[in-house]
Design brief:
mainly beta, four-stranded antiparallel β-sheet, 0% helix
Length: 98
């Protein structure tokens, strides 16, 4: 785990594992049980590219979904990114500034 922040009744973690080429966004409940995990892969939208790191997590609360802001380091540099998380579910989608 590279970075963690408090979120709702648990924590959001971002990190990587050797078997995944993209960072993982993981939500754990208060008792550290994994509720959901999402591989932040950009290669389907931008072939031959890779998101290598996600850092600087910041959550902005919303009505039906919350916004997660971050900096994503990818093949061509670092860019701001946003992810949307449903209040009672998991990640809806994410994107970098491009």
């Amino acid at each position: 785990v590279n970075e963690s922040i408090s979120y709702r009744f648990g924590k959001l973690h971002v990190g990587s594992i050797p078997s995944e080429s993209s960072p993982l966004l993981i939500y754990t409940s208060g008792d550290d049980q994994v509720e959901w995990a999402f591989a932040m892969d950009v290669s389907s939208q931008m072939p031959n590219t890779q998101l290598r790191e996600v850092r600087g997590l910041c959550v902005l609360p919303g009505l039906a979904r919350d916004q997660l802001r971050f900096v994503g380091v990818w093949t061509y540099g670092a860019e701001r990114g946003k992810a949307y998380i449903w209040k009672f579910g998991e990640l809806q989608y994410f994107y970098l500034s491009w």
